[in-house]
């Protein structure tokens, strides 16, 4: 959401970013004005409940609905009263929210302004659409609202159509502009040799669940036998989880993937939305080993485009990973598909153009 927020700022609009207090430093690092609302929620506690079981099966449902929805209800419950109060005082003309922050459309409905939903990858909630009205209704009742559609007035979608799941709505396309947090270009920037370069990265979520789920070190060792240069990109606090790496593996910490992937020929990762779409932007083939349902969905959609492959975690032994990586490096078809997906992404309107869409949405409503 950072590129869209900055596009709104650059167009002369006032922008405030409201979220849980724990995200205040992240918002400020992006150079945006933070508004802490509500209280922090122990998200890893919820995520542990729906880690994929062997065979790629999701956790059992609770109350007949996917367990992830319990987390979204808890997040909305923690924020909605404070956010609605802030919105009533500041009176924004439009409230833009990402798809898992239901406090956004609730607060927008409370003050009578449009809510615009921004996807950060594949629409993870489309499969659960039938459960959403019942999940959100207690919170709507609390605000005196009869009915609230969490989809809002508009959905902004960064995925090229081939990557997205079928949906029951017409989205507003936007070009995905990577924002992986602030960072510094590696100095010296690693020169590209004659061998292919593989980037191994594992996001930040899995290590928060439990250290053993951060598989970057294991995956780097798995591809050691290939005639390739290996780069491991991790957060600074996760370097201690990389013990025993081969000596010729380069470890980059605190470097945004957007600065790492342009020189890579393959990225091996967990299937997080940020990694998937950043790699897509640079036309890099991907090997995905998912551990959460959203990871599996991103991997499945990516594989369907031909731009990557998926291996189930329980099948990701070193030999299988090495064989899949070698195949992706050797197969020009995967490279061509990844390049085609990147080209499709570049054809989508940039965030600056979407600002005009938001302006028209407000003007039409007025």
Beta-strand proportion: 5-15%
**Roughly how many Å apart are the termini?**
25 Å
Q: Secondary-structure element sequence?
A: HEHEHHEHEHEEEHHEEHEHEHEHHH
Structural class: alpha/beta
How do the helices and strands line up, and which of them pair or pack?
Blueprint (H helix, E strand, L loop, with lengths): L1 H9 L6 E3 L4 H6 L4 E3 L6 H5 L20 H23 L4 E4 L4 H9 L3 E4 L13 H11 L11 E4 L14 E2 L23 E5 L3 H5 L6 H7 L6 E6 L15 E4 L3 H4 L5 E4 L3 H9 L4 E3 L4 H13 L2 E3 L7 H13 L1 H15 L4 H15 L1
Parallel strand pairs: 1-2, 3-4, 4-5, 5-6, 7-8, 7-10, 8-9, 10-11, 11-12
Fold and architecture overview:
Helices cover 39% and strands 12% of the residues. The strands form three sheets. A six-stranded parallel sheet has the order 9-8-7-10-11-12, with helices on both faces. A four-stranded parallel sheet has the order 3-4-5-6. Strands 1-2 form a two-stranded parallel ribbon. Helix 1 crosses helix 14, helix 4 (68-90) runs parallel beside helix 5 (103-111) and helix 4 (68-90) packs parallel to helix 6. The chain has helices at residues 2-10, 24-29, 43-47, 68-90, 103-111, 132-142, 205-209, 216-222, 257-260, 273-281, 293-305, 318-330, 332-346, 351-365; strands at 17-19, 34-36, 95-98, 115-118, 154-157, 172-173, 197-201, 229-234, 250-253, 266-269, 286-288, 308-310. The chain is an alpha/beta fold. Strand 11, helix 11 and strand 12 form a beta-alpha-beta unit.
